[in-house]
Amino acid sequence: MLRDYCCCCCYGAPSFDSADIADRDPVLLVSGIGGSILHSKRKKFGFQTRVWVRILLADLEFKKKIWSIYNPETGYTESLDDSTEIVVPQDDYGLYAIDILDPSIFVKCLHLSDVYHFHDMIDMLVGCGYKKGTTLFGYGYDFRQSNRIGQLMDGLKERLETAYKASGGRKVNIISHSMGGLLVSCFISLYGDIFAKYVNKWITIATPFQGAPGCINDSILTGMQFVEGFESYFFVSRWSMHQLLVECPSVYEMLPNPNFNWKKQPEIQVWRKHSKEEEVSVVFESYGRYECVTLFEEALKNNELNYDGKTVALPFNFSILKWAAGTREVLDKTQIPEGVSFYNIYGTSFNTPFDVCYGSESSPIDELSEICHTTPEYSYVDGDGTVPSESAKADNFDAVERVGVSGSHRGLLKDEKVFQLIKNWLGVSEKTKTKVRRSKTSKVMDAC
């Protein structure tokens, strides 16, 4: 597949004979939340617009096309614009959607690494002799939805079957990132026989097996800012993202597992102002694994947005919470089928949000609804900046190897030590070293 002219000089194009390809078990790359290109498709005319990720007009298109509301009757999150549907492009054997998340000429020419997702890993695997469509495939999906919803489960099953058949009946090696590991876990729990039939090895990277307490608690309350500084004016705002995440089952499914034996139970903390008659006091309140639901409810009770001239109420969604509890039960029952080898890479050495605190002793919160417009403070633990190491390595599986690598959540997808581990576990090596252009970077918050 030809690349845009401005990038063609940056990459090698190694060729391999049929014997090399025949000696490769197929690899399927599975992305996490925010790790797939999403298009908005007109139901009537079929015209598609990229709504995630885009650098220019990002917030405008995001609000118009991807803002959604959860349907408790179906379990799906559905776009507020009922004339459109969200679809994932299937080009390049599923790899296009998880490669460069904004594949515009502008982004490619400047090599803006903020939106380069599986790109470096794809190049590494091609350099090891894997061939797109024969031994290399990708699986991107509508990451707003639940990790156990039928659409996502069917899509993964279809992609496994495709990879299995295209390689001549060789079992597939899955490499998943972040929430993609939860998706695979749900698939194993629900369709273990199919997984055992098609899969040889599963390598997971930075998966929040027991949740991502700081990041997810705060995402539900205040949203998520992906790009900091001047660049944020060209990207989706924290508030716009918040209005989406409140209605996303996948986000609720990454809340900290209340049944996990944490070294310290995660908390949400609030410096709260109380007035009684003429006396004013400031109280430090702490909400644990069960009390935090009450906090979510109170903080989001007035949350709403204006869409197409109509007011849409978006309080904390108890229907999604109930569904997510069912997903946690599915995840807790997962057992790796006999004959499948499991490997776990988790990030270390980065300050990772754990407890979240709103307000301060000198500037306390009056009404809890103010939290949604407050910048939080965190307490930190070791991890990849998004997922605590404690959660990522607590897979509860019989792992062949479990390795901590010093790296950030998304940075692990382009880390040389991670690449070496993957090559060792797959039993391959690079024949030609791929040329990589020096990246331009900005401060970006990782998603799970």
From TrEMBL:
GO biological process, one term: lipid metabolic process
Pfam families according to UniProt: LCAT
Molecular function, one GO term: O-acyltransferase activity
Organism in which the protein naturally occurs: Sesamum indicum
PANTHER family, sorted: LECITHIN-CHOLESTEROL ACYLTRANSFERASE-RELATED
InterPro entries xrefs: AB_hydrolase_fold, LACT/PDAT_acylTrfase
Name recorded for this polypeptide: Phospholipase A(1) LCAT3
Domain of life: Eukaryota
